[in-house]
Amino acid sequence: MKKINFFIILFLSFCIVKATPSTCIFIPSVDFQPFLNPHFGLDCYFNTYGVGNLTNAGITIGVLPFEKLQMEVGIDYRDINGIHDYPFLFNAKIGIPEDIFINYQPAFAFGIYDVGFKTNINSYNIGYGLLGKTFGKFGRISLGAYKGAIGVDPKYLFFVNSDTSSFNRKISDIGFLASYDRYFPELNNKLWICIDFMSGYNSYGSLNFGFAWFFTQTVSVILGYDIYLDNKLLKPTFNVQFDINMF
Questions:
Q1: For 106, which DSSP code?
Q2: 67: burial class by Cβ within 10 Å (0-12, 13-18, 19+)?
Q3: Going by DSSP bridges, is the β-strand pair 88-96/70-80 parallel, antiparallel, or unpaired?
Q4: What span, in angstroms and rounded, lies between the C-alpha atoms of 88 and 71?
C-alpha cells in the first residue's frame, strides 16, 4: 500500500502541475537538495475569494558532491488559471551550510529562480542572497535580499504595483527576504512550522505562514496561507505543497 500511495503522489506531481528552489513556505531557503537526490514538488495556490489559481510541479536535484559547497538546479512547469503559455521555468542555487568552516558561522545561499526565456512573458529572473542561522531550540532565522527583472516593454513590466495610472504605477523590483522556521519535537518530531516574508508591492511581495507534516523522512505536506502586500493586485491564497525526495 505504501508503494501504491507513493506512485499515486508521484503521478500527480507530473500531471497536475512556481519555479522554485528549496523553499520555506514561499521564499527560497538556505537548504539544499543532497547530491543526486531528486526532489519532486507540487505546489497549489487557491484564492480564498475571487478567481485565479496557480499550480506548479517541478524537479530539483543536488549537483555537487561536496560537503562544504553545495548546489542544486531545478526545472518547473507553471499553470496559472489554466493558461499554459511558456510554462517552463528554471532555478539554481549555490552556497554553504551552517558551521561548516567555523563555529557559529551562518549558512549562505545565492541563487536565481523563475528564470524564463520568453522576453516580457516569463523572464522574471529573480536573483537573491540569503544568510541563515539556527539558534538552538529557538529555531532558525534567515535574512536576505532579492532583485527581479522588470521587463523591457512598458506594457509588460513584472515588478510593479497594481495602480493603473501611469503617474502612480511604480517599479518595485528590489526587496528583502526574511523567514523563521522550527521543528517542534515537544509536540511531535514530524511537525515543522514556518513564517516568511518577501517585501515589494508586486506579484511576489507577501507574508506567508504555515506548517509541514512529515509522513516519512522523504514525504511531507505543507499547508500555508499567503497575504499579499498589494491586495488590489492579489487576494490571499491558501496553499498546499506536496514534497517527495526520491531517497
A1: P
A2: exposed
A3: antiparallel
A4: 20
Residue 5 phi, psi (nearest 5):
-60, -40
Sequence-ordered list of residues with C-beta below 8 angstroms from that of 8, at least 6 positions apart, any chain: none
Tens-digit pLDDT profile for residues 103-154 = 999 999 999 999 998 888 889 999 999 999 999 999 999 999 999 987 666 6
Amino acid identity of residue 227, one-letter, is I
The DSSP call for residue 136 is: G
Mark out the alpha helices in the chain (DSSP H runs). 2-15
Write the CA distances from 155 to 141, 145, 150, 158, 225, integer angstroms: 38, 26, 11, 9, 30
Cell numbers found for residue 96: 554553504
What the block records as the C-alpha cell of 20 is 522554485
- Over the stretch 153-167, which tens digit does the pLDDT of each residue have? 666 678 888 775 555
- Residues with Cβ within 8 Å of 101's Cβ and at least 6 positions away in sequence, in order, are 68
Question: Which amino acid is present at 221?
Answer: V
CA 154 to each of CA 1, 30, 175: distance values in angstroms, whole numbers, following the listed order: 54, 34, 21
Give the span between the Cα atoms of 209 and 239, in whole angstroms.
10
C-alpha cell belonging to residue 198: 518577501
Instruction: Return the sign of the alpha-carbon dihedral for residues 49, 13, 213, 93.
Output: negative
Closest CA to 199 of 166, 223, 230: 230
What domains lie within the chain, and their CATH numbers? 2-245 (2.40.160.40)
Q: Please state whether the predicted TM-score (pTM) of the whole model is above 0.85.
A: yes
